[in-house]
Amino acid sequence: MEQNIILTVDVVLLTLKDNALQVVLQKRTWDPYKGFPALPGGYVHTEEDLDSLAAAKRVLKDKTALVSPYLEQLYTFASATRDPRGWSVSISYYALLDIETLMSQGSDRFLLHPVDDLPQLPFDHNRIIDSAVQRLRNKSTYSAVPCYLLPELFTLSDLQQTYEKVLGCKLDKSAFRRKIGELDFLDATSKARTGVHRPAQLYRIRPAKNLVLFDRTISKI
After folding, report:
1. Cα–Cα distance for residue pair 174/177, rounded to 1 Å
2. What's the average model confidence in pLDDT over 123-150?
3. Residue 160 CB neighbour total at 10 angstroms
4. CA distance 27 to 12
5. Please, which residues have CB within 8 angstroms of residue 80's CB and are 6 or more apart in sequence?
6. pLDDT value of position 35
7. Beta partners for residue 17, in sequence order
8. H or E stretch covering 219
9. 26, 113 in Cβ contact below 8 A?
């Protein structure tokens, strides 16, 4: 008897909290693995979803009430063994969101867990998360993608620290700021952050259709 293939989307939603890259997990409400933490995911609705991106956006919104400013297709995970119900395909995406926006929905909707210290998760979700983290860290060496882990307004120090937390290395302050200035993808606002030190200029990402790419890796700046 021919078996129907299970078709789902899974979203790896990443954020920065406590100086560490963390992933959003949710306790499953249905078998298999009921009660276990897992990635937000769901079936593709063929009559509703125009494509897999639309499905990923819908699943993320339905499961977490969140909309990510950055959502990118990661990989397709497919096999006869990844799901105990049978042959299954997961079109995976990874998304980025700042911690303030994420927590504004209330922590009762999800669990946060450091990506470098994950428990054993259902299906192949450990593998999916590892792939997403590797993609993010690699892409952060040559693009502006870490900006999407920041709130709408941020300082240049915030931006550099975000790169450093994602990449796990220190960056030269003068060289980093010079390169960011050359790329010209930030808009300076009329606002500044005040505190014990002198006011720090606040910036936002300039609206663009495409992600800003560097002409060389950040580690060589």
Report:
1. 5
2. 95
3. 18
4. 14
5. 86, 87
6. 95
7. 20
8. none
9. no
| Angle value at C-alpha 61, between 33 and 52, nearest 5 degrees | 80
Rounded CA-CA distance 195/217 in Å is 33
Instruction: Tell whether domain 144-220 is in CATH 3.40.50.620.
Output: no
Q: Helices (DSSP H) in the chain: which residue ranges?
A: 52-64, 99-103, 125-140, 156-167, 173-183
Domain 6-139 has CATH 3.90.79.10: yes
Length of the chain: 221
Contact 206, 185 (CB under 8 A): yes
**Among 173, 178, 175, 145, which Cα is nearest to 161's?**
173
Name the β-bridge partners of 186. 205
What is the tens place of the pLDDT at every residue in 172-214?
999 999 888 888 889 999 999 887 678 899 999 988 756 777 7
* Tokens 């980093």 -> residue: 176
Burial of residue 95, with CB atoms counted within 10 A of its CB: 0-12 exposed, 13-18 middle, 19 or more buried: buried
Query: pTM score, two decimals?
Result: 0.92
Write out the DSSP string of 76-132. EEEESSSSTTSSEEEEEEEEE--HHHHHTT-GGG-EEEETTS----STTHHHHHHHH
Asked if pLDDT for residue 108 goes beyond 80, the answer is: no
Cross-strand pairs, 12: 94
Which tokens in the block code for residue 208?
């663009």
Break the chain into its structural domains and give their ranges: 6-139, 144-220
What whole-number distance in Å separates Cα of residue 189 and Cα of residue 204?
7
* Residue whose structure tokens are 């009762």: 108
